[in-house]
Amino acid sequence: MIRGIGTDIVAIARIERALARHGARFAARILRPEELTAFGSAARPAAWLAKRFAAKEALGKALGTGIGAVSWQDFSVLSASGGVPVVRCHGRARQLLAQRDIIDIWISLSDERDYALAFAVLSD
User: Fold this and answer.
1) Per-residue pLDDT of the chain (124 residues; tens, 9 = 90+)
2) Domain harbouring 37, CATH code
3) Alpha-carbon distance 19 to 23, whole Å?
4) What is the DSSP code (8-state) at residue 103?
5) pTM, rounded to two decimals
């Protein structure tokens, strides 16, 4: 049964500006260490980061808490073989998922020239 859905769209230029202004500090605020490694080798770093930013926002919305009750660091979004995005939950997000008996997390990421989009579904 579906327990939550969330979506988010991000202007890639917004992420480019944040990276230009704050550099690695901005990326480190949003990404976990394992994501930072992948970010460092991304062909389009701003688009890659924008998709993760959107993913974490969408996941917070799907949980019904938004980012605030959970943090950016409570989620990691990496790519499995074939590029399929995989979510791992940590900290408060992991606790909330367990309390709500949520076992499956589905996420879709996409980007086009100007925007990155994420759609998340939580189910039991």
Assistant:
1) 999 999 999 999 999 999 999 999 999 999 999 999 999 999 999 999 999 999 999 999 999 999 989 999 999 999 998 889 999 999 999 999 999 999 999 999 999 999 999 999 999 9
2) 3.90.470.20
3) 4
4) -
5) 0.94
Q: Which residue carries 């939550």 as its tokens? A: 4
Residues 6+ apart with CB under 8 A from 39: 27, 31, 45, 48, 49, 52
Tokens of 70: 């959970």
User: For residue 59, what are the CA distances in angstroms to 4, 44, 122?
Assistant: 9, 23, 8
Question: Do 122 and 62 contact (CB within 8 A), yes or no?
Answer: yes
Residue 65 structure tokens: 């808490």
Distance, CA of 67 to CA of 54 (rounded, Å): 11
* DSSP summary character for residue 64: T
Give the structural domain span for 52.
2-123
Which amino acid type is present at position 63? L
Q: Give me the number of domains the chain comprises.
A: 1
